Fold this protein.
Amino acid sequence: MRVIVLAAIAATLAANTAWADEQEIKLKPGPGLDKVEANCQACHTLAYIPMNSPFLNAAGWDAEVTKMIKAYGAPIDDADAQAIKAYLAAHYGG
Amino acid sequence: MTRRHLLQAAGAGAAAAAAGLRLSTVAQAESAASRLTPGVPAGVASYVQMGRLPGKRPLIQLADRPPNYETPIEYLRTPITPNDAFFVRYHLSDIPEVKAETYRIAVGGEGANGTIELTLDDLKKMPAVEVVAVNQCSGNRRGLSQPHVAGVEWGYGAMGCARWRGARLKDILDKVGLKKEAIEIAFNGADGPAVDKTPDFIKSIPVWKATDENTIVAYEMNGEPLPHFNGFPARVIVPGWTGTYWMKHVISINALTRPQGGFWMNPAYRIPVGKFPIRDRFITQENATSTPITEMVVNSLITSHRDGDKVKVGKVVVSGLAWDGGYGIRSVEVSTDGGRTWFSATLGADLGRFAFRPWRFEFTARRGRNTLTVNATNKIGQTQTAELIFNPAGYHNNVMQRITLIA
């Protein structure tokens, strides 16, 4: 009986716990989101954004975007970079 | 309702159905994403869930691309971490499936007298050695930094311990011969960046560490081929040192007469000079303010319980792991009164000075809140810290863990 109950619990957990191979990250809507989606996902999951929130302030997000361009060589033009920084500070800033 | 709340609701439903029965370790681990380590940035809970990579159990999916998956503490209850529960950490997103038949390691460099190419069979024909060693990400527990710092926001599980089998790096280097001018040995892996301008992940170690008898190129992990996501067909094992040097899918080994450059050596993976009680120095990379991270600091973790778990009044056994940078664990002490008095925990099997050392501690839980603090001491007398030694990258977090159990 105990074994059956435990099996039932495991089945319930399995049914209720989503195991995703691929992340589906829904970022907050707002101006600049299109630039974030168009640029950032070329190299990495958008999960890095909520993961690093909400503790980065505007200067912190500015430094991160600058690092992506300068240190990691992300091909993001100035206008997009400004839009991305503004979006991150407004929606994921601390 | 956030995904985390959904998961919590699901967990609560299952717990109610259990009617007092204890959930199995696997079930607990598989719901770990809904019970994140207290203290990680709040944003993690807004998206994180368990994710399954091929050949792996569901792990805490911090990022799927590049793959960064954390091991739930329930899978850290043994001194050897199972291969399918071992954490996964990559910097770059282009990760090829390397075939054993076509795999080659190019060995050479300007600090070597010659060059050779090794196949997987060549490696396996060399004298084989085994070492049980902890592989811990430099940024393990970064998520607990106060203030928070940017990066992959790991909780406690960016680490594991395995029995690695392979050829000594020293024996590989002897095949080409080192010039006396050689100062560093550099590694590159088969993985690469998504865009060309991103610096490839290349790391070096000092010659003295590369030629240590415990530094190997491993093709077996716990008696099996390495899982793809832990570096198949072969990776570098640098016992005692943090995971950044343990190059996965290693395809080149170069002896250098000048320090390795590049983003991943500087400014990445650096600690401030003089802040940590580190003995292993990487002099050729050191400057006035920063130095490469080297050996792990002494640390411990409770893995039998999570903070806030309910226990019964009376005898309770708490257990966990302790490890350090290769001196070995001398003792683990537990305090039940916030650090005023300490009692020795019982140490378990000793699998070697680079391995996880299991420990257990029995105490009498009183009704209400029971707080436990753990502190490990290594064989050269180093202990964990009471306060975080803050650094901008969130490395070397060995603050004594404190949990509260409710009876």
Chain A touches chain B at residues 2, 5-6, 8-10, 12-14, 16-23, 25, 42-45, 47-56, 60, 63-64, 71-75, 92 (CB under 8 Å). The first helix of chain A runs from residue 2 to 16. Residues 61 and 88 of chain A are 7 Å apart (CA to CA). The radius of gyration of chain A is 19 Å.
